[in-house]
Design goal:
It is built from eleven helices and 15 strands. The protein is an alpha/beta fold. The longest helix is centred in the C-terminal third of the chain and has 14 residues.
Length: about 350
């Protein structure tokens, strides 16, 4: 058995937290001590960690310091962030953590990945397909860009430049019927807008938006772990059965074409750490510079293997060799469960 290791995981209330924590715990070769943090004291992950603490929001200047204090108290070996909103603070303060390994990319790579207009510009420059797009902020820019992209003959869509989990995403369609949506749509379903409504609601709010061609087709993700712009371990999968902006079903794939598109992007970003590149049809639509939902196998524990490399227990070649274990037949279904306890 290997020496025990202590891993701090952020955002342990997020949808994939329990599966991730369980996979780290049930690695089959060593004892893992888990320290979890979240802004919500009722985060589900607290029940799967040895130690739990609440921390400020990732955007709070005190977030990284609070995580560092906890790392020192609990003798943490490695920090694994799950939320996009925690990445910049940790990247900026990474050197302060000293020998504690913080698995984040450079601040420049994170900002380019999180800013969707930067992502699209990068892809345009390296020949990776993205939808036709415009960066807009004012009502006049919305109107002009929408018509340039083909509205009203074509449906387009909008999303804040920096967002997560489909927050702020709306289809813009000249056939949008708000009365029909009121009567027929279930609560929580995103409602389509006409261009004039989108410009009035979003323009002038101080938020910048990506206005773009509406990509259609099957959704795919390229997930992986990289160092200095090289993917050491990665795989593509589908994203299906969407619910509240989250994919609930995944199929692992064998697709060299998707992996090559991901490799181009990661190389251009000179990326380090976990990543997820999302596509709709043939178009890249976003990059998440963090770990995403994982299709676990009994002989392939991707997060644990990558963390072993991050702390220097595997060579790059040893990590690459694990790619042979990825099974394209693997299927992953996400579902709701519940947990009960008595307060003491």
């Amino acid at each position: 058995m290997l020496e025990p290791i202590t891993i701090l995981v952020t955002a342990v209330g997020c949808p994939g937290a329990v599966a991730l924590l369980r996979s780290l715990r049930e690695n089959g070769e060593r004892e893992v001590r888990l320290v979890g943090v979240d802004t919500n004291e009722q985060a589900i992950g607290r029940h799967f960690c040895d130690v739990f603490a609440t921390v400020p929001l990732g955007s709070d200047p005190g977030f990284a310091g609070a995580v560092l204090d906890l790392c020192r108290r609990e003798n943490v070996d490695v920090v694994l962030p799950q939320s996009s909103y925690t990445l910049e603070g940790l990247a900026i303060e990474k050197e302060s953590f000293g020998k504690i390994v913080v698995v984040v990319a450079s601040i420049e790579a994170i900002r380019r990945a999180n800013d969707k207009a930067e992502t699209f510009a990068l892809c345009d420059a390296i020949g990776v397909r993205v939808p036709a797009w415009r960066r807009v902020a004012t009502p006049a820019e919305f109107e002009q860009a929408g018509h340039e992209l083909g509205y009203p003959e074509r449906e387009i869509c909008m999303k804040p430049l920096i967002s997560s989990g489909t927050r702020g995403f709306r289809v813009i369609s000249s056939t949008a019927d708000r009365r029909k949506q009121l009567l027929e749509n279930r609560p929580g379903m995103p409602e389509a807008l006409r261009l004039e409504e989108a410009a009035d609601l979003a323009g002038g709010t101080g938020v910048e938006w990506l206005l773009m061609e509406l990509a259609t087709g099957k959704e795919h993700t390229i997930d992986g772990y990289a160092e200095r712009g090289e993917i050491l371990l990665g795989y593509p999968k589908t994203r299906e059965a969407m619910r509240a902006g989250l994919a609930m079903y995944f199929e692992t794939l064998d697709s060299p074409e998707l992996m090559e598109a991901g490799a181009k992007i990661i190389r251009e970003l000179d990326f380090d750490g976990f990543f997820s590149v999302n596509l709709v049809g043939d178009y890249v639509i976003e990059i998440n510079p963090r770990i995403s939902t994982v299709p676990y196998q009994e002989d392939f524990n991707y997060p644990y293997l990558a963390l072993k490399r991050a702390v220097g227990e595997l060579s790059a070649d040893e990590l690459r060799a694990y790619s042979k274990r990825i099974r394209p037949s693997r299927r992953t279904l996400r579902y709701f469960d519940q947990l009960g306890w008595d307060e003491q």
